[in-house]
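Deliverable D2.4 — example input (structure tokens):
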């Protein structure tokens, strides 16, 4: 495994640092200088690698670790078993995936880094478009803040999400019995009538699957909230990552509303990336005779 900062390749006007990714040799290009990188450059490179490692933890379908909710849950009040909940969840997810012909919306990506060698912030607004079965396209509408985060983190995130949408990757990360074990923890009241709380644990360890809890709507059998940690640390330079995701109902679909991740960097920094989702327009194949129905979320988060 290569150590960032210790092993550098001088190539004309750039210095290339290799990350410690176990499968893929990635690199960060530093600004041209007159000699080897100093300590601040090496530390900055390590922190960027840690932020890029976070990309793997937020692009694929997610799950989560510590319960931040104050609501009490009880297994005794659950009318269905864990197997019945999972059966309904898998079946309904397949039906919704088949029915979602087209989806578009606005996303706002924001990342705040606090720590050594200096604080950084960046924000990017993106138009996202999905077409069944696996096509995703992104158009950057606006961006501001740290060029390092914009180019090395946000753009990498968009590329990784396209990759995660491909059938082979989805098959390895979907929330089903092929990839996860399930345990029923309880049943909680909610605005829609009630939610089942499941603990999920992956059957194989990788940075693309997760351990934690998911809340499943008791009527639609869709994930409404999840809290988790990656089953495998996405980067050596990241000590710990906590992921929190919320979903909202748009027509007959439960779509992302807000994602937040908190990553603690070994050199003492803390990165808090968020994604806000808004202005959804979806095309539902189930609600048409001659043409699909187009539905809008009609909501805007403040």
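Example output (designed residues):
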């Amino acid at each position: 495994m290569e150590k960032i900062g210790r092993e550098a390749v001088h190539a004309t006007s750039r210095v290339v640092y290799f990350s410690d990714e176990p499968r893929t040799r990635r690199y960060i290009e530093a600004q041209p200088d007159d000699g080897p990188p100093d300590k601040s450059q090496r530390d900055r490179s390590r922190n960027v690698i840690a932020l890029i490692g976070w990309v793997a933890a937020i692009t694929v379908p997610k799950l989560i670790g510590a319960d931040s909710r104050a609501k009490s849950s009880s297994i005794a009040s659950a009318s269905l078993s864990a197997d019945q909940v999972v059966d309904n969840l898998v079946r309904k997810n397949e039906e919704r995936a088949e029915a979602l012909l087209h989806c578009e919306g606005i996303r706002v990506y924001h990342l705040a880094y606090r720590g050594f060698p200096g604080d950084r912030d960046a924000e990017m607004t993106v138009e996202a478009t999905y077409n069944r079965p696996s096509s995703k396209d992104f158009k950057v509408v606006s961006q501001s803040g740290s060029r390092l985060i914009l180019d090395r983190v946000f753009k990498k995130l968009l590329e990784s999400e396209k990759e995660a949408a491909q059938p082979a990757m989805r098959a390895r990360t979907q929330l089903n019995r092929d990839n996860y074990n399930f345990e029923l923890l309880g049943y909680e009241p909610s605005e829609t009538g009630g939610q089942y709380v499941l603990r999920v644990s992956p059957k194989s360890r990788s940075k693309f699957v997760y351990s934690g809890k998911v809340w499943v709507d008791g009527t639609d059998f869709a994930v409404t909230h999840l809290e988790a940690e990656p089953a495998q640390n996405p980067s050596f330079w990241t000590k710990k990552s906590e992921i929190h995701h919320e979903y909202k109902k748009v027509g007959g679909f439960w779509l992302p509303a807000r994602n937040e991740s908190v990553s603690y960097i070994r050199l003492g920094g803390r990165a808090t990336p968020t994604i806000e989702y808004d202005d959804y327009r979806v095309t539902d194949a189930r609600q048409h005779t001659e043409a699909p129905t187009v539905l809008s979320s009609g909501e805007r988060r403040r």
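DSSP finds four helices and 14 strands in the chain.
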